[in-house]
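Supplementary Methods S3. Complex input for the NAP-bound model.
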Amino acid sequence: MTPNPRTIAILGGAGKEGSGLALRWGYAGHRVLIGSRSAERAEAAASELNAELATGPISGMTNGAAAAAADLVVLTVPYAAQQETAMEVATELAGKILVDVTAPLKPPRVSVVQLPEGGSAAVALQERLGDMVTVVAAFQNISAHHLRDLDHVMDCDVLVSADDADDADQVIALVNDAGMKGWHSGPLANSAAAEALTSVLIALNRRYKVPGSGIRITGIE
Ligand SMILES: NC(=O)c1ccc[n+]([C@@H]2O[C@H](COP(=O)([O-])OP(=O)(O)OC[C@H]3O[C@@H](n4cnc5c(N)ncnc54)[C@H](OP(=O)(O)O)[C@@H]3O)[C@@H](O)[C@H]2O)c1
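Predicted complex, serialized as structure tokens:
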């Protein structure tokens, strides 16, 4: 159990990536608030996840209610809904870290790198939200399939792109609590590399017929 339990909102948390993170953080002892456009959908997802945990630390509510009640917020919605979802709760995000998990995939060619014009979807989101919110990018390269299975040992690392080292450390602590190793991989602009890697990993999954390839950083003690 984590010695520093936090209240974490996951916007879009009833989906694949968000529910995997919710399960891992709930298991680690954090209070998790699943956000959704539909409170009923969030409540159903929370009940399903709590059934796998002894403690039941996961609740479901609207995205706005989750963002308001949390001390840190995570965004796990498709790229097409990234800015709109965050802007809808911009007031509730003020003064908080927003961990952006979005990979700028453009269906149907999701295994081909197609970064947005400015380079990074996370930087574009930070510009849209302004200085009141601190965007940190992470988890774009982590398979939802593996997160959702608590018996699976997470054999991969997480690149955490953040302009401030203390903000990166807060997110790295959550990476560790989810069973992985996190690295401060430079400023938020460097999230372009992690965003691009998502399509590379999807291509690897298809080529080698696996549910979730990942990355590992070597050479650092
Ligand atoms: N799946 C993975 O393995 C994986 C791995 C790394 C990164 N990611 C990234 O994580 C993000 C989420 O991926 P996912 O696979 O979890 O997606 P998903 O299951 O398809 O969607 C997640 C949630 O987003 C909300 N949503 C969907 N369309 C929306 C819209 N038009 N407007 C507002 N909300 C919408 C839905 O929540 P409600 O209907 O409940 O509101 C949905 O449950 C993506 O950016 C993806 O690139 C995914």
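The chain has one domain: 7-208. The chain has a mean pLDDT of 97.
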